[in-house]
Amino acid sequence: MQPEVANALAEAANLLLVGMVVVFLFLSMLIGAITLIAWVIKLIPDESLNSIENQGKLTNSTLPNNQGVSPKIVAAISAAIFQHRQSH
């Protein structure tokens, strides 16, 4: 019975080693692929991102005034928010 147990333990250790090597190689390749993709993205700028960043830099003075919201509604909402903050 001893040789069977020794063979089973040797096979288990072999499977453990092979499994750990496979997982290590897979994770290393995954990290390498992600790093490569990030490097390529830095080299090739995306024009759509630039337009989104420029839209975020707009100030209130550059936005058009005809947004479809009446100044009376804005005043009512502002007054309601002010009252809510005062009561809480």
Descriptive notes:
- The chain has 88 residues and is mainly α.
- The chain has a domain of 47 residues.
- It is 78% helix and 0% strand.
- It is built from three helices and no strands.
- The longest helix has 42 residues.
- It is elongated and about 90 Å long.
Short description:
The chain has helices at 2-43, 47-56, 71-87. The chain has 88 residues and is mainly alpha-helical.
Largest pleated sheet? none
How does the overall form come out from the CA principal axes? elongated
Structural class: mainly alpha
Model regions low in confidence, pLDDT < 50 over at least 5 residues: none
How many runs of DSSP E, i.e. beta strands? 0
Average residue pLDDT: 84
The helix-strand sequence is HHH
Rg, please? 32 Å
Number of helices: 3
What is the helix content? over 70%
| N-end to C-end Cα span | 78 Å
Share of β-strand residues: under 5%
